[in-house]
Amino acid sequence: MTTSPAINSVGAVRSATTDGPTTVDDPAFKRWEGRLFGGLVLAAFLLYGIGSALVDDPLGVGLVAVNSVAVAIVGIIGFRLLWNHSPRVGAGYLVTRFAEATFLVSGVALYAYADRSDADTQGYLLGMLVLGIGSVPFWYVVGRGPWLSTRFALWGVAGYVALAAGALVELTTGREVTYFFAAPGGLFEVAVGLHLLRKGFGTSTHRHSDEPHSPSGTA
């Protein structure tokens, strides 16, 4: 049996063999973290949805603040997921989620306490623009790795491209189109949230290698 190390396109080190599949395993990342990721993604819908509807009430601002904490934790988990495989993409996702959290809570706070009538809308649009741009490489890499099916992840990629496009159009033209463009990404977040809440990210999987095997040794 021939064995040689191989590096895939997302930077994960694989052990390739001539007579079997390859494996990717990251014991440092726990399955419960994937479940927490899914739960927080789902919770964010309620936290921001209810909070933004009650923006004139301190309770609403508080719910949006809790949402921002949840969003930041999602970024931390995503960063941990990709740390040993594609750290730059993971770091980009972490920055994305922290920026989204900042825009959302600051927009609502400025609206509620600084009498900025459009601050909540502008904060939301900027948050969605950043989220859309930063989530595309994250879910692309996730789909290329062992954590989620490629088709499922590509749904996310397409959804976040649409989200970013809608937010950009609304920011530059004033046309209220973001909610329409957000639909594919929103449905993806519900679906992936439920999936991860149930199963978590797969941290070990077997896939047949598409890479040529190098005869570095025999056994």
What can you see in these coordinates?
- Helices cover 67% and strands 8% of the residues.
- It has 219 residues and is mostly helical.
- It has one domain.
- β1 (3-7) and β2 form a beta hairpin.
- Residues 1-25 and 204-219 have low confidence and may be disordered.
- It is globular, with a radius of gyration of 20 Å.
- It has 7 helices and 4 strands.
- It has helices at residues 31-53, 58-82, 87-113, 119-144, 150-173, 178-181, 183-199; strands at 3-7, 13-17, 22-25, 204-207.
- A two-stranded antiparallel ribbon has the order 1-2.
Annotation, overall tally of beta strands:
4
CA radius of gyration is 20 Å
Helix residue percentage: 55-70%
Uncertain stretches:
1-25, 204-219
- Output the strand order for the largest sheet: 1-2
Write the layout of secondary structure elements.
Blueprint lengths: L2 E5 L5 E5 L4 E4 L5 H23 L4 H25 L4 H27 L5 H26 L5 H24 L4 H4 L1 H17 L4 E4 L12
Antiparallel strand pairs: 1-2, 3-4
Question: Any key phrases for this structure?
Answer:
single chain, 219 residues, mainly alpha, two-stranded antiparallel sheet, 7 helices
Task: Briefly characterize the structure.
With 219 residues, the protein is mainly alpha-helical.
